[in-house]
Structures are given as structure tokens and as C-alpha cells.
Amino acid sequence: MTRTRWNLLGTSTLLSLSLGLSGCGANSTGATTAHAQPMHGGTAVIALPVQTSPNWFFPVMSLTADSVVNFQVDEMMYKPLLHISRHDTVNYARSLASSVTWNAAGTRYVVTLNKKWHWSNGQPVTAQDVVFTYNIMKAASSGASSLPWAFAGEGFGGFPTLWKSVVAQGPYQVVITLNAPKNQQWFLRNGINQLIPVPEQVWNKYPDNMTQELKFINSVANSPLSSVYRVVDGPYKFNSYSPNNYWSFVPNPGYDGHRSLLDKVTFQYETSSASEFDALKTGTVNVGYLPPSLLKVRSELTHDVFSVAYSFGFNYLLDNFSLKAPNGIGKAFNSLVVRQALQMGVDQPGIIQHLYEGYGVVDDTTLAPEPPTEFFDPALAKNPYPFNPQAGRELLLKHGWHLVHGVMTKNGIPLSFTLDYASGSQTATDMVQLLKSDWALEGIHVTLVSQPFDTVISDSPSNASQWAMIDWNGGWTYGTDPYPTGGGLFATNGAENSGSYNSQTMNQLIAASYQPGSTKQVLKALYAYEVYAAKQLPAVFVPWIPNFNEHSLSIHGTVKTFDPVGDVLSPNYWWISTSQ
């Protein structure tokens, strides 16, 4: 949710959404150049997830463009206020902020900026830039029907209702005041971490009309050659692009951090898993991923290094709980019995074994057990709804559902619906076909419809009458919300609660996880939320699959510098050798 965000499965991603690229240290094969030393020059060509394009270059993310890919390209140009490390801690050496302090109640936070950071035009990054960016986030979270676009971070870190004020205190300090005491570590990670400043001097086109400002941002959000993107504080500047082909960046010569050794970084569009695999074989892509359907033939990539790494998140299919959902299916999904039957029809061990060559873990709640973390409740190691379609069928019959022309029906509502899934991956297609087959054993009829990823993630409450269930071929990775609570995901009216799930108990448990306390107390509250989600099923949980990453033997640093917590790439730390 980038906010992580949606990670594309299997493309380093389970969508993620993960493009994940090179993982964090696990299970790598291949050899790198012996005694090689970093050198300047060369182009890193990064394969994008299949049929996925960056389409929002402004770092305050729109709800309908909230993807890992957009987050990754935005961070090429703009630095976040806080840099979250692979260990889910703040790395101030790579943050705009040099420190954050707070009071004992967790209601007042003082963010001090490091004076070394400048925009590429030489002007300093200031507290007023932070305040201006906050005002954009706030304006895009008003909920007004006339909004040109909505902020994807609404509901995460209590934004905006918890935030009482954000004010500049001199040129290098920002004071954030909250309306109520909160868990400081939660607010640091999920609240303050959402701030990715833009230069007010460049973007403040309508000082007295924020609606016009939002319209302007919307008009240039997918126009990276616009002059507004020439002033950045990140390691790269945008260079050129060809739609459905490539998007290129060159080093920012005025960058105040670790400057790029590469001459260029290019994100390359991929039409299919097969084409991406061919690009790896021919060397036209030197940083990419191994499609799960091709795991058996990875030995053909003789000039690459293969690595596996889990991102920090979970994987699920999204139900549409809205009463506007087609054919009354929203009312059916609001029944826990129906959700239990759906979950019992998911053969997670079979999916892992047969579609992902044994890679992956069973995922039954809002945080997967891999990678290991204290945030995962060990009591959830046992799936409360293991695969058992016969039990799911009997459960439905016991609660008044009966077969009508082969489809479970109750009160005139048939368990027959459309599952929209992200196109481009054969493994993703195989998985939804398996789900369709297993659900049919319970009397649940599913029609599969393949859609481009950008189309799938645009489904929301605003078009609730047009969709029933979504599989974006991936899951949620905790990027800008690395304290894994669910306010933006499953709280009522959360920005990423596209399925309109609504539970007052869920709201209360999420709110409790935000409260200050000892480490034991805050983890107990988080675990209570995870257990409730596992039992009440605000979504259909499916396996969490690692990123299958590939990079050329000639490119160095991708595995070491990749951050699996937020799917953050750092190509300014990569380099290319001229020989192997």
C-alpha cells in the first residue's frame, strides 16, 4: 500500500501487489565475478510484471494507481521522509529526516530534516515542502464526490482523521500533532512514513484552490516528461519512455546520497511470461524474474543468478461485499458461512506443490508466516479452514443453501459470480482454474474473466455493480504501512477496502492495535486482529509465494540492496562489470 502495495505474484511478485526483483539473500544460485570491483557505466534493464505499466509518477499515490510498480518508479525520483530498512526499522542515514522524537502520550511528533538534502535545482528540501505535501494528501482524502482523485493512504496511519495538524517550525522541523494518543512505533511506520515530499516551489500551481491543484496533478500524473518532474531529490531523473515499451531514468547529478554508478535504468514492458523469459535468455533484460510456470527450465538461463525471497505481506482474493454487487452476490459474501465454504475450497498445499514447485507457504490471515517476524501470531500456524470442499458443501447445505441446477442457492441468490483476474501469467490462470474446479465441488459456480492488471486494481466501491471477486495475481506488501495493521485494508471505509468489508468488531480490534503500550501489549492487540481476520475471513486467503528473481552475472548489488519490506529497489547501489 507502497502502501505498499499490490504485488504481482510470481513476477517477483505475487503482484505485488511483487515485482520484487532481487531478493534478500536466500536460496541464490549462480556465480558472480571473482574479485570484481565497482565501476561506472552500463544500463540496468528491469523487467516489469507482465502487462503492467507505471502510470502515476506523482509520489502521493492515487487509489486507482496504487501499485508496487508505481511506488518503485516514484522512489527513483523522490525520497521518502523515512527510509524503512529490510529489518522494518528506520534508516535515518537514507531518510530525509535526521530524527523523529515524540512525547510519552504519542500525540506530538517532531520531525527534524537533514539539511544535506536538496532538490535538483539546488534549493533545500524544507519543512514547508513537507507541509505542502501533507495538504495535498489531506485534500485528496476529503471523500468529496467531486475529487479528481483519491489518496490511496487514507485510513493508514490514522490519516487524515487522527492528524490534528502538521506545521512547519522553522525551515527544517515539522511538528505533527494527533487528536489522540497512539502507539508511537505504529504511527512512525504507518503515519509519518507516508510522507514523500514534493517541491512546493514547483507544484503549488493553485495556492488558494486545492481542488484545482488536484486536477492539475491528475493531468500530469502520467506525463513524466512534464517540466514539473525535472526538480527531484531522488537518485534519478526521468529521461524518456515509449508507452507499452520502456521507461528510462538517468542519474540525478545533484543527488545528495549514494550516486548511481549506472548510466541509465530502464523499466521494460513485458507482454507475457514467455517474452520476459526470452529477454532474460538473450540478455535484453538483466534484472527480472522467473515466471513460476518456467521454474522447471530455469537451467536454460545459463548467464543469470536465481534467488528466492519473501516480501513482507500476505495474499488474498477480494470479495465485493457491497449490496450493489452483481446478482445479489454481495449479500451472499456477507454470510460467514459462505466465506468459510469459499476458504475451504482453496487447496493451498496443492497450489504450492503443483503450481509453484513447492515454493510458498499457507497464508490464513493478514500477515504471512514468511519472512519470520515478531508481528506474526504463532498461533496461526494452523489454518482454521484447511482445504476440504466436501465439508464446505455440507456447511452450506446445513445452513439453508440448496442446489438449483447444480448451483447452491438461498433466498433466490445463487452462488454464481465472476472472478476477474490479472492477465499475462499462465500460473495465475492455472490457479484460478483450479479454484473454479474446487469450488464447483461445493456447488459454487465461477466465471473467469482475464483483465489487464491496471484494470483489475481500478475496481472499487465506485463501480461495485460491475464486479464480484478480484484476483490481481498477487497480494498486499507492507511498504508505506510496515506496521501490519489493517486500518486501510479492512476497516470500514478504508482507502484500500475496495470490497466494502464492514465489521464493527474488526474496527475495534484495528483501533486497539493503534494504542500505546508495552511491546507485549501492542503485540497482543495486533495478534487479536490477525486471529479475528483468520476466523472471519474479510477476504479469501491464498498462498504467499516468494519472489523468483533473476539477474545477469554481470550486474551486481541487486540481491544485497533489495528491501523486501517495501519492495524497494535501489539501483543507485548497483553496478555492471564488463566481463564475467
UniProtKB/TrEMBL annotation:
CDD domains: PBP2_thermophilic_Hb8_like. SUPFAM superfamilies: Periplasmic binding protein-like II. Transmembrane segments: none annotated. The keyword Aminoacyl-tRNA synthetase does not apply. It is found in: Cell envelope. Pfam families: SBP_bac_5 (PF00496). Residues 1-36 form the signal peptide. Keywords: Signal, Transport. The keyword Signal applies. Its main location: other. Residues 95-477 form the Solute-binding protein family domain. PANTHER family: PERIPLASMIC BINDING COMPONENT OF ABC TRANSPORTER, PERIPLASMIC OLIGOPEPTIDE-BINDING PROTEIN-RELATED. Belongs to the bacterial solute-binding protein 5 family. This is ABC transporter substrate-binding protein. It comes from Sulfobacillus thermotolerans.
